[in-house]
Structure formats: structure tokens, C-alpha cells
Amino acid sequence: MRSATAEPANTGNPVMRVLRKIRLPLDDPFAVVGLLIYAVFFLVAIFADQLATHDPLEILFDKDYQLAADLRPLEDGFVLGTTSLGRDIYSQLIYGSRSALLIGLTAAFMVAVIGTVVGLLSGYFGGWIDILLMRAADIAFGIPFLPFVIVLAAFLEPSIWNVVLAMALILWRDTGRVIRSQVLTLRTRAYIDAARVSGSSDLKIVFRHIAPNILPLSFLYGSIAIGWAILTEAAISFLGFGDPETISWGYMLQDAYASQALSQGGYYWFVPPGICIVLVVVAGFFISRGYEEILFPKLKE
Amino acid sequence: MSDDILRVEGLKISYAVGTSKVRAVDDATFSIPSGSIVGLVGESGCGKTTVARGLTRIMAKSASFDGGEVFFDGKNLLSLSEPDMNELRWRDIAFIPQSAMNSLDPVYTIEKQINEVLIQRGGYNKTDARARAEELFEMVGIEKQRLGDYPHQFSGGMRQRVAIALALALNPKLVIADEPVTALDVIVQRQILDTLKSLQDKLGISVILVTHDISVVAYVCDRIVVMYAGRVVESGDTTTVLTAPYHPYTMGLYNAFPDLQSSEGLLTPIEGHPPDLSNPPDGCRFAPRCPFAEDRCRTSDIPLIDVGGGHFAACLRSSEADALREQAAKPETWAEMA
Amino acid sequence: MLWAVATILFLMFRLMPSNPLAAYIDPTFTVEQQAALMAKFGLDRPLWEQYFIYLWNLLQGELGDSFFYRQPVGTRVLELLPNTLILTFSSLIIAYTFGIIVGAWLAWKRDTFAERAAIPLVLTTRALPEFWLGMLLLALFSFTLGWFPAGGTRSPGSEYASYFALYTSRDFLSHLVLPAMTLAIYSQGLPLLLMRSNMLEVMNEDFVTMARIKGLSSWTVVVRHAARNALLPVMTSFAIAVGYQIQGNVVVETVFSWPGLGRELVNAVSASDYPLAQGAFLMIAVVVVLMNLLADLLYTLLDPRISHA
Predict the structure, then answer these.
(1) Does any CB of chain B come closer than 8 Å to the CB of residue C62?
(2) What's the order of all strands across the beta sheet hosting B223-228?
(3) Mean pLDDT of all residues in chain C?
(4) Of the candidates B112, B145, B151, which has an alpha carbon nearest to the alpha carbon of residue C305?
(5) What is the pLDDT of residue A300?
(6) Across the interface, do B90 and C214 touch by the CB < 8 Å criterion?
(7) Which residue of B has its CA nearest to C206?
(8) Which of A146, A227, A250 is facing C248, going by the closest CB pair?
(9) Is C in contact with B (3 or more beta carbon pairs below 8 Å)?
(10) Based on the domain organization, do B127 and B176 belong to the same domain?
(11) Among the three residues B129, B144, B171, which one is the final residue of a domain in this structure?
């Protein structure tokens, strides 16, 4: 397979050009599995209202008006049982996919955008912009990631957006560095020189010639960030710094942990959310590996 | 001939490429007389390196033997068990690689790498090993103080000397040198070849020198084996073969190389490319590039025949060699093929 | 570098919307009492002045007093550091030993069924939320099977003469097993995958081929030459992994009630104990930065191409 950065992409309209650059890694069976997992979770998230049997936060009662708490799976028609507060685990699981995907995708988007812009500016213009931005990246590497997110999430209002923001503030560093070095090599290519000599402005060169060629890299790092973001959000929610209004898998696990589900053998409560997290994150890994093989074909050897 | 240290007969080696097979060495036959330096020469991709590696039986995973025999010191190497073959490696058959830089482990000192061979394969103890290592360094002309240095601390020529010292460590009977001087500049090339030649004389070992450079063969080799597209096309005494070649490929090859000692005269390249080995042409494989090829060259198999005095050539027109040689000396003859 | 982190930390803690003394001040305090407290903690001065006082104190190793424990943060943090380091190092040593051996073995077994099945499995362990893995192990081995204690570092009521006696006691070690295993299972993927890909690359190097042509034993070829070279970047990654793991410890320490820096940070943040949270954060940052430095140093030491240039 050809290196994604081998040729300039300057034909066709911009949208098509971008789409052609972001090839889905369909040759790799694992990447296909990853995409399928995503597809399933997307459908679940979209049709959550139809799929859920109960309101995930509603406290439920059984026929005898007793609190429907700590029910085992399939007992009284609750597919996965209920929590200690009488909430339906299955419905929480379904709604959890919404926040997971929302967090994963927005964080990945922000990481990819910030990292790409930083990498482009740093690599293309060099000089003090480069020094400044790369020093900032060094500092971001020195800040302990999870503690930083915890502190920020705890001090700002507990909402998933603040968690996403805190993650993006740190995670852009890897993307930024990689994109920068890619831009540095692209900048020396003949067609960039040609564009410069023929009088194209910097802005035009960056967006027309360089940006399309680094898009797959941005995507790769974005797809890695999805998994990170979901894992981090789960950890934050588990530690109790999450948004109490939003049902997420991390929140479910925190609820289970705090309600002594572990000592009472409530596997039906804390196993499913964990499996969902693993599935989504591992799907992200598979997809990013597929991208890696497109981008760095020598890994296949 | 019983005084041959090595006899290769009808050797066939192929590589698996995807689902198909590419026969890189097809029916190669030659022999190495004891105590001589034999040059194995040909263009890149002609199978010479594959032959060299095949003799050690350490080949790429995709490579396999498809036939033929290799007699070394009375034993058929291809039918030896792997442990028996391994006993032979380095003790009897040593190897000098093309790039000593990549062939020396970067994380160990040279002394450690020589010791490894001396102790693990040669049964030396530590003190004897040190003495032997110093002796080896002296033989190849490096100060013994440098034994404790790492590979990256040596220059290219020095590293090649180290590689020779390593190869000679266990007094092998046969040394296979795979393009030992290709990566070096001409002056250093000569120094290394001089060292190799004098050590070979002194120790009475046999050497196979694999090279694409016919001037290297002319400079040090007693005998020459010319390969083309996986086959041996000509072999014999170096002086005889180079002054009176019988195969047009050898004639062309000689024209195409500068002399190691002088750079006079015009170089005439052989036009075209070697054939695709996954689908080789019938008959003589050189025919498509040969200015003297006739129709019969493209159909029948061409045997390697004795043209006199241990000189073999695989050409149907070998009886007209004298006339062909005259024409081959003219650049126009080759230019017409372009 | 640490200065930059300390500055960001300062800004984070001082620019927060809520009053940093909120947790400290009793609603019954009078305005004067509150002002006195503000003065005591230096919070009535201008921001830049506070900043220089903060930096000056840091340079002297002075981290302030914890609101909650009413004792110096420095003492508290240093008390907890060994627990975190023991947990981190024991888990990483297990993870690296396992990862390096299995990674090398998988490279050796390339293109076999075992190798093909192992890679997605390893990727899956990288996708496990650490705290969830901890919960599973806790539920299974502690609550259901009762093999190991559920949390903390020692059984209630046990006393030890010295730290050494504590850290080598059976009791301490049995408390260590589950959290260390949790972290080890999560962390083995990195050295494993790194070792595997390095091995695959190194196995193609000429010097490995030459070692085989020399007739050296397979052990020498694979271990002394291939693995030794493939190990270089893996060892460097160890130092980085320590820095990384220390951050990740936060959740696992919480699950297993392991009294370390991470759990302390979480508790301090929950209790709005700012000086303590700041101290724990800073301590973690120090370890991260030191480990990044150590990684560079290790690489220089282990690779003669750099150390003997």
C-alpha cells in the first residue's frame, strides 16, 4: 500500500479530497470488528429511548409497592436486575452508551483539532511559535494526566464537558508532536516548494497542500483518544467527580462499588458496564491499528 | 576431483513470493579447489549471494533448497542433520558479511564477540581466548588495544578487518566472503583484499569471494565462477577466463567494469535487464541481451561444457569464441542491442 | 519544568471559583475570624505576592498545613509515598518481567495460532478500566473466594517494629497481591507489544543472522543478541511507565483502600483540603518528571552507541 503522504492531494473538490484521505481501514479484519462494535453502540445510543425498558434514574417498585432493589437478573422482568436503589441496570447500560460515545467523540475531536493546529503551526512556521508550542507540549507531558483531570473536574462544575475539556487540555500533546514532525518532513517536499515559488500564500499552502496529507494522522490519534477519553471519564465518574445527572458506565460502577455490590456478589451489576467500556475502547484500538497499517505499511512485514 | 574442498552440483534454491516461487539459483555447478580463492561474480539478483548463504544453510525463511548437492570435505551439506551442520558452521565454514557494521552486535565490544565464538564454538578458556583474539587482531593489522572497543567506534575498513579476524578465529577450511569490500572506497578495498589474500596464502584456507565487481576478482582470485540469472555461465582459471572468455556475458561484464588498478579505457554497459526469474525464458537466459544470440539459443537447454583445461562455458557458440571476442571488444556491438 | 508544573498548579488552585477556605471555615465564624484566617494563610495578599511566597515555600520543601489533618502536608505526603512506590514498582516489575518474556516468545512464534490469538487479547487488557479490573479481582478473590484481604496495607490491630518488618511481613504482602496484580495485568501490554515488535525488527538484523551463521546456540542468538538489543527501548519505557503508573494508581488505590498518594489526592480533593491535594499532586508530578529524566539517562547508559560515542 502506498504511503498516505506520498502524493499531493490537490484535485477534486475539498470535501471529496478529505474523504479520500480518511480511508477506513477495511482490509484489516480487526479494524472491521472495531467498526462493527462502534456501529452497534451507535445504534444503541441513537435508539436508547426505544431500547430501554425503564427510566434509568427512576426508582422502581414491584407489584406489591415494595422497593424493587437488588433484584437478580430476569427477576420480575428486569433483564439485568436492579441496583440497591431500585433502578433498572439494563436501562442504565443502554443510556450509558450515549454518554460514552458523546465523551469519546468530542474529546477525540478536540484532541485531534488542537493537536493538528498546534502541529501545523509549529512545524510550518518554526521559529518562536515552534519553541513556544513545543515547550507547552513538554509541560503538558510533565503534568500527571489523571490527577489533573480529577482536580479540574472537581473544582469546576461537575459536568461531562469539563471532564472533556480537562482531557483535551493535556492529550493534544502527543498529536501535536507527531503532526509537527510530519509537517517538517512534508515542508521539504518538492511540491510545497513549487507552491511557494509560484506565489501561494502560507495559509493556502498549509490548508491546501499540507493539511490534507496529515489528516490520516490526526484521525489515527483521534481514534486513540476516543478510548482514552472513555476510560478517563469512567475513572473520574468512579471516583465520584462525574456529572451526577448523567448516567455513564463509570457512574454505574461507582454506584455498585459504593453500594457494596462487590461483597454481596452482585456480578450482574458491575460486570456489564465494564464489558461495555472494554468493548468500545478495544474497538478504538483495533481501528487505530488498522489506520497504523495504512499509514506505516512496513509494520505489516 | 578429490582435492576440491567444495563441490556444488546442480544446486537449486527458490524463494516463496506470495503463492508463487522464484527460482533464484537454478542448476548451479562449480567447485572450489583446496587452498584457492574463487570469485563468484555476477550482477545483483543473479543468485550469487543466495548461493553463498545457501552454503551455510542459514537462509531467509522464504528460501528453500529444491535440489542439487553440495559436497564439502567429503560430506553432503544438504543431507547433514541440523546439529551436524551447526557443528560445521564457523569451525569449518566461516563467513565475512558485506556490511560489518550491521553484522556486528552494536551492544557488545569486539572482544566479547570474538570470545563468544572462541569459547562457545572453539572450546577456548578465557585466557587462551584473550591470547587468540590478540593474535587475530595482529593478523588483520589492528592494534590489540582496540579489542575493547564497540563496533561503532571503528571505521568502515577497520570493521571489515574485524570481520575477517572473526572469520579466521577458529581456523576454518573455507571462508565465504559476501561482497566484503563493496561498501568501501577503492584504496581501502585494495588494502582489505591484500590482507585477505596474504592471510589466505599463509593459512592455506580456501575462499569464496562473492562480488559484482569483476576487477576485484581479477585482482585476487585464482578462479572465477560467473553467474547469470541463477545459472553458472562460465567458470575456470581467472586469467584464462578473463583473457579468453567463452561466454558473451563474461565478455560484456569485463567491458563494463573499470580496472581496480587503472581507470583507463571506455566502459561499455550491457543493455537491458536480467530476466524475471519467476518466469525465466527458455534456452539461454542471456539470449535476450546477447548480441550474438541465434534462434537455437532460445529453445534448447545449454549445458556447461569443458572448453579445455578446466575452463567451462555454457554457450552454444563457444566454438566461435575467438571471433565473438573480437566483436565483443567493439562498443558498437553492444550499442546495437539498445 | 517542575517550575512550570508548580505554576500551573498554583493557578489552578487559586483561580478556582470557590473560596479555598470554604472547607476550613465554620459558618459560625465571624467576619473578623474569617479575615484572620485568610491572613494566616496569606490569602489576603495580592495574587503575585502569594505566588512568590508559594514558590519560595516550595523551594524550601514547605507545602503548608493540611486543613483536615492539621499537620504539615510534607510529612503526610512523605509518609504515603513509600506505599505508592512499593505498589507501583512491584506491579511494574511483574508486568515487565512477564511482558518482556512473553513478548520475545510471541516474536519467536510469529505467524502461529498462539501469536495471532494473543495480540487482540493483549490489546483487550490495555482497554480494561483499571478500577473495574480491580473490582473484579476484589469481588472474586477476596469476597467470593476469600483468598486475599479486601483492602488497606495490614490487618487491623497488627503492629510492626519497623517499616522494614512491615513491608516484608506476610500480612503486608497478602494485602499487596490484588492491587499489584490489577496494575500488572493492565501494564504488561506495553512492554509485551514493544518487546514483540522490537524483537521482530531485530531478528531481521544482519548481526542476528551472523550469530546463526557462527553456529551459536539458539539461546545465544535469541537471548544474548536479539533480545538484548530489543530490550533497550523497553527498559527506557520502564521509567516512563513508572511515571505513568503513579498517575494511574489513583483509581486502584481507591478501589483497594491502599493508603497511597493517589487515594490521598482523591480524598483531599473531595474534602476540599487544598494544601494536601496540591502537595499530593506536586509529589506525583515530581515522580513523573524525574522518571522522564531517568528514561533519557537509562537509554544513554544502556546503549554503548551513545555512552561510548
Answers:
(1) no
(2) B93-96, B174-178, B206-211, B37-41, B223-228, B231-237, B311-313, B305-308
(3) 79
(4) B151
(5) 40
(6) yes
(7) B103
(8) A146
(9) yes
(10) no
(11) B171
CA C245, CA C260: separation in Å to the nearest integer? 13
Residue B248's CATH number: 3.40.50.300
Three cell numbers at B36?
A: 584457492
Touch criterion met for A and B (3+ Cβ pairs within 8 Å): no
Please choose, from the candidates A41, A175, A35, A62, the residue with its C-alpha nearest in 3D space to the C-alpha of residue A116.
Answer: A175
Element (H, E) at B28: strand B20-33
C281, amino acid identity: F
Which pLDDT score, from 0 to 100, does residue A32 have? 82
Beta-carbon count within 10 A of A206 CB = 19
What distance in Å separates residue B115's CA from the closest CA in chain C? 12
- Interface residue B219 vs chain C (CB under 8 A): no
The answer to whether residues B163 and B179 belong to one domain is no
Question: Domain ends where: B171, B205, B223?
Answer: B171
Q: Cβ contacts (< 8 Å) between A147 and chain C: which residues? A: 247, 250, 262, 265, 280-281, 284-285
Using the Cβ of B190 and the Cβ atoms of chain C, whether some distance falls under 8 Å is answered with: no
Nearest CA to CA, how far is A203 from chain C (Å)?
32
B49 CB within 8 Å of a chain C CB: no
Q: What residue in C sits closest to A34 (Cα-Cα)?
A: C120
- Distance between CA B111 and CA B117 in Å, rounded? 10
DSSP H helical ranges for chain A? 14-21, 29-46, 48-51, 89-125, 127-142, 145-155, 160-187, 190-197, 202-204, 211-238, 249-258, 267-295
Contact B32, B52 (CB under 8 A): no
Domain count of the fold of chain B = 2
Write the CA distances from B28 to B25, B40, B166, C81, integer angstroms: 6, 11, 29, 70
Range of the domain at B115: 101-171
How many Cβ contacts (< 8 angstroms) between chains A and C?
A: 135
Kindly state whether residues B202 and B79 are assigned to the same domain: yes
Please say whether the dihedral angle defined by the alpha carbons of residues B48, B52, B54 and B60, taken in this order, is positive or negative: negative
User: Are A268 and A73 in contact, with CB atoms under 8 Å apart?
Assistant: yes
Write the pLDDT tens digit of every residue in B198-235.
999 999 999 999 998 888 898 999 999 999 999 999 99
Under DSSP, is residue B132 helix (H, G, I), strand (E, B) or coil? helix
Contact C269 A286 (CB under 8 A): no
C235 touching chain B per CB within 8 A: no
B292 and B233 share a domain? yes
Could you read off the pLDDT of C82-124 as tens digits, one per residue? 888 888 889 999 999 999 999 988 888 777 788 888 888 888 8
Shared domain for B267 and B199, answered yes or no, is: yes
The answer on B165 and B126 residing in a single domain is yes
Separation between Cα atoms, residue C216 and residue A12, nearest integer Å: 58
> Which residues of chain B neighbour C207 with C-beta distances below 8 Å?
102-106
Half-sphere exposure of B326 (CA within 13 A, CB side): 3
pLDDT tens-place string over residues C6-19: 777 777 766 554 55
Q: Cβ contacts (< 8 Å) between B117 and chain C: which residues?
A: 214, 216
Neighboring chain C residues of B95 at a CB cutoff of 8 Å: 210, 213-214
Q: C289: which chain A residues are within 8 Å (Cβ-Cβ)?
A: 142
Same domain membership, residue B277 and residue B151: no
Q: A256 pLDDT exceeds 80?
A: no
Render pLDDT for B163-205 as a digit per residue (tens, 0 to 9): 999 999 999 999 999 988 887 888 888 999 999 999 999 999 9
Residues of B in contact with C217 (CB under 8 A): 120
**Buried-exposed string B261-300: b where 16+ CB fall within 10 A, e elsewhere:** eeeeeeebebeeebbebeebeebbbbbbbbbbbeeebeee
Binary contact (C213, B89; C-beta < 8 A):
yes
Residue B120 shares a structural domain with residue B191: no
Whether B121 contacts chain C with CB within 8 A: yes
Query: Which of B121, B149, B152 faces C214 most closely, judged by CB atoms?
Result: B121
Q: Among A124, A167, A295, A114, which Cα is nearest to A220's?
A: A295
